[in-house]
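fwd from M.: "can u put these together and see what the complex looks like"

so here's what she sent:
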Amino acid sequence: MLLIECPYCGKRHETEFRYGGEAHIVRPEKPEDLNDTEWADFLFMRTNTKGVFAERWYHANGCRQWFNALRHTVSHQIIAVYKMGEKPPVSDQGSEDR
Amino acid sequence: MAKFDNWRSPVAHLSEGFPSSLTELPFTHQINLRGDITDKAFKTAVKKATGLVLPVIPNEVGMGKDNIKALWLSPNEWLIVSDHEITDIRDSLAEIHSAATDVSANRIILGLSGPDALEVLMKSCEMDLDPNVFKTGQVVQTLIAKSQAIIEKVSDDTYHIYVRNSFAAYVCEWLVDAHVEYRM
């Protein structure tokens, strides 16, 4: 089982959390200007990273706060956790061969 | 108290089978309080109405006068527990961006005590409850047998467990069952 460190409560078991998908997806400022392809891209298309991936987690059975985590999608190692609105403390790019 | 006159505990029918270390604590007044702790007006108003200094450190319990306490639930949320009605908190907070909701009917409180309390809890919950980590005066929100619960450590071997009414009977039955091996 994964031990995930909530930025508020500390290390807790995976069962207390819910997964929230890819992080840092910005809602378009003017959705009405987008065509269907661009809108669908915002709504549905996500990267399928092999390596370090920035994703959202929700501490559902604890403090009920959302936060971000950098997780390696092969080893499940969690490299960093950080609060909503913060930038990733380390780059989540180019780590295919980790 | 008039408020609780017609209330029935969801675990009343189970209490005969409780081991001596498990008790249901009488109904208490519980208020869910939300607000911005960095707002001085909010802090002062809460202090004035309840005498409480709200804990800002995660998973801590703040004690006030007359057995009133505040359990840290999240960075902007506390559960105020008291054996007497807290009447003036909503008036004090009226002008401040905040919410104080009476949730007395939301949860029952179970008292778990004695030398086996820790082991019974450890069987039921994945949380690290080692006395070096989880200390008196701390509170934790986690899962007990897959149902959401708040565990407060009241003293070295006494825990208060807050569970939702609708889960209460299930959690009680679980804890009674978990006690069996210690009653041999």
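replying to her w this: DSSP finds one helix and six strands in chain A.
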